[in-house]
Structures are given as structure tokens and as C-alpha cells.
Amino acid sequence: MNTPTSSLRCHSAALRLAGSFLFALFLFGPLTLGAAAAPAAPALLDDFSDAELMPTGAGRFVVNDKDVGGQSRATMTCANGVLAVEGQLVPGRGMPAFVSLPLLLALDAQPRDLSAYTGVRLRVKVRQGLLSVQVASTEVQNFDFHTGGPVMRQPGDFQEVRLPFAAMKRAWSEQIPLNPNSITSVNLVAVGMAPGAFAYEVDEIGFY
């Protein structure tokens, strides 16, 4: 029987393996950080009050592992101000399984300045599996983005989780400080080495 410690260890290993290609599959086009400071981001990233679009005007979509041999899948619904995502992780041979939901800070996928904030906060209910939160930066070129969590299943209603930027780590690369002036998205990631179900709900996500 898996213990919480062994589950976290496997989750960490899966993140290390998945990170190298997870967002290489997610093609926004060039993400460049200009000489001028990025515009400041609002404290609220998404409250899911619009079933189709984020407050930035960007749509919500899912990235999975099909291009690297996996068969992971997910369904995403948004109703009554709550985002619900559930699915199955089905890894390819020798590869971790993953399903990611990128939440863009700007419609054009350009960076925004989060230097006024300490970290990411979300009201979340993890119903099955584990959930990690990645912060994507234009300064990270190998897709090993800074990651917080994992957030584990807990009984009861939504819980508020706060993930400080300073505590976020890269999985296998040299640990460098996260530049808050270079952030393009916050990504909700379910990942694992073994087949399994996952499900979570998010009531609100933003910064504190």
C-alpha cells in the first residue's frame, strides 16, 4: 500500500521527468521579455464567473501528454463560479502522465509583474489524486518552471491554499530565484508515473 510519503516521492519524480517536455507542447508563439518592465498583474487571476473566458479574455484549455505517447484525458466544466476538472492519467511507455491547465496572465501571453505579491493563493478542493501549481517564467528556457505543492486531498469543503513564490522549486535544474517581473501563466498540473484518476475543483485563484 502506498504511504503519503511514497506518493509524494513518486509525484516529485514524475515532475522531474515530465517537466522537460510538458510545456514544450504548449505553443503560445514567442514569449519575450522586453527591456521595459512588464505591466502589473491584478490580484485576482480567475474567479470562474465566466464559463468560457478568463478575466484577461483568454480561453481556458487543457494540455495533455498525447504527443509523447500518453493517453491521459480530462474533462473541464465551469459553472456557478467553480472550475471542475477530472480525468485519468495514462502514461506512455517510460514516460510520466500529465494533464495541465494553463491560466494566462495576459491575452497575448506576454509576462506580467507580480512583484507586489508574495505567492499564489487558491480556493481548491482536491477530490482525487494530487495537484501541483507551476508558475511559468520567460526566464526559464528548459520548461523546468518553479513549482509549488502538491496539494493533497482533504475531506470537507474548499480550502484556501497559499504557495509562496520563495518556496517554489525547479525539479531538476539549478535553483534560481523566480523573477516576479517575468510571469506568463499559472498552471494547474496533475502528473503521475502510474495510471490513476484525478479530480479537483477551484473556486478562485489569484495572488496574495
Summarize, please.
The chain is mainly β and 208 residues long. It contains one helix and eleven strands; from the N terminus they run αβββββββββββ. The model is unreliable at 20-35 (pLDDT under 50).
Descriptive report:
- The structure is a single chain.
- With 208 residues, this protein is mostly beta strands.
- The chain has one domain: Galactose-binding domain-like (Jelly Rolls, Sandwich), CATH 2.60.120.
- It contains one helix and eleven strands, in the order αβββββββββββ.
- Strands 1, 3, 4, 6, 9 and 11 form a six-stranded antiparallel beta sheet that branches. A five-stranded antiparallel beta sheet has the order 2-5-10-7-8.
- Strand 3 and strand 4 form a beta hairpin.
- The radius of gyration is 16 Å and the shape is globular.
Query: Can you give the mean pLDDT?
Result: 86
Structure class:
mainly beta
User: SSE string, helix = H, strand = E?
Assistant: HEEEEEEEEEEE
- Overall shape: globular
Question: CA-to-CA gap between the ends?
Answer: 38 Å
Oligomer status? single chain
How many extended strands? 11
> How much β-strand is present in the residues?
35-45%
Helix content: under 10%
Instruction: Look at the structure and give the CATH class.
Output: Mainly Beta
Determine the CATH superfamily.
Galactose-binding domain-like
Give the CATH architecture: Sandwich
Radius of gyration: 16 Å
Total number of helices: 1
Write down the CATH topology: Jelly Rolls
Largest sheet, described in full? 6 strands, antiparallel
**Which spans have pLDDT < 50 for at least 5 consecutive residues?**
20-35
Domain unit count:
1
